[in-house]
Design goal:
28% of the residues lie in helices and 37% in strands. It has 3 helices and 8 strands, in the order αββββαββββα. The strands form 2 sheets. Strands 1-8-3-6 form a 4-stranded antiparallel β-sheet, with no helix packed on it. With 135 residues, the protein is an alpha+beta fold.
């Protein structure tokens, strides 16, 4: 009985410390469901997003942050057809969202599309980070 209690305490402490370590200052997670070939806001920059879906039919793009809502994505969608990136089934996609921009998801099919995301808030542009790491 004492061994079982000790093991449960150790497991609980490990789970708590892992959760606390993963919940960094500006990190956020979420899910977005897009229906009927519409467009939705995902997250605001500056951030690096990790995107994942088990379905096909979704494209991500960035847009200028004016309102910080779906309206930014709807307004920008017509002009960004070439800048959209497909979310491949069961593969993680990384999208860098600069300051003053928002990440958007556009559904390319009439059925519901679900996108899971994790955002790492950043204040340093990616190229500056890479240069600093090389020195």
């Amino acid at each position: 009985m004492k061994t079982t209690t000790s093991a449960l305490l150790i497991i609980s402490a490990f789970a708590f410390s892992t959760t606390a370590a993963n919940a960094k200052g500006g990190d956020q997670v979420g899910a977005v469901v897009v229906k009927d070939q519409s467009v939705k806001f995902v997250a605001a920059g500056p951030a690096i997003l990790h995107l994942y879906s088990m379905d096909r039919g979704g494209n991500v793009f960035t847009a200028a942050a004016t309102t910080g809502t779906d309206a930014d994505c709807v307004h920008a969608q017509a002009g960004t057809r070439d800048g959209q990136n497909e979310i491949r089934v069961d593969q993680r996609r990384i999208l860098e969202v600069p300051a003053g921009q928002v990440a958007c998801i556009a559904a390319a099919s009439p059925r519901a599309y679900e996108l899971l995301w994790h955002a790492h808030q950043t204040t340093t542009p990616r190229h500056e980070t890479l240069v600093a790491q090389k020195q």
